[in-house]
Amino acid sequence: MQLIDGKSLSQKVQSSVQAEVEKLKQEKNIVPGLAVVIVGDDPASHAYVSMKEKACKSVGFYSIAHKMPETITQDEIIQIITMMNNNPHIHGILVQLPLPPHIDTNKILEVIDPKKDVDGFHAYNVGRMVTNLDSFVACTPLGVMKMFQEYNIDLQGKDVVVVGASNIVGKPMAALLLNANATVTVTHIYTKDLASHTRNADIIIVGVGKPNLITEDMVKDGAIVIDIGINRLDNGKLVGDVDFENVSPKCSYITPVPGGVGPMTIAMLLSNTLKATKQFGEDI
Ligand code: NAD
Questions:
Q1: Based on the structure, what is the number of domains in the chain?
Q2: What is the sign, positive or negative, of the torsion defined by CA atoms of 13, 16, 21, 22?
């Protein structure tokens, strides 16, 4: 069994982003700028935003966080995003999800200028990604693809089961795998017999949010397991969706939690923001 080390790969990506930022500053006097919009006081969302801000700072980005109260109206959020769309110092805009129930998330995401949509959630970018055109791709699935590339894991013809089908994790993950010529099965809460799918998979990618959802009996010998889930147990421990202790001995490769997909998500956000900065002013 080999661990896929997301932490060290993310550091490698960050170093290369940092070097490019330095070059952009020296040669063109441009500093990549990322605006983050966060609504309400969910501690997990605030923790993610502060990790993102810290990462931006470490590579030399300019970053600004718009922290809004839970009571903010949809129109007020739209006004802030419009301001950021028009701000030439901001190259990337990210709205931290989830938003409170009185806000229409899809409506908010559609207001972001697709050229600044570094989370890749705008329908314009999703459509381009599905048709295999250049686009901003959601950071978590993009980070998983980067891991496959780094570890020379060939996806062509592989049977891949994606567990979880959200717009931000499972669906874009499935589209990227299909673009890489894998045979993809997408499973979700209404899937009748999850184990019957995972047991035959060469690769299992799980992003659900349920500790120990994937157990030893659901994984074939030699499978590759990518754990996107992040769960905080009552004892404070951070775990994924996979029973790591019992599943890992069966795997050829597996990602740990923490230290797997999580750091890659942040690294891909930096890399997408750099891409948006370089493309700034170009027509798309
Ligand atoms: P979500 O709640 O929007 O979607 C969960 C998906 O899991 C749904 O498609 C649902 O149908 C499916 N599901 C629920 N129970 C299931 C079951 N018993 N069997 C099979 N499928 C089931 O969640 P999300 O935003 O997609 O996040 C999923 C997980 O990934 C969470 O733990 C989240 O914290 C984590 N996450 C991690 C990163 C990262 O950087 N590592 C990024 C985003 C999300």
A1: 2
A2: positive
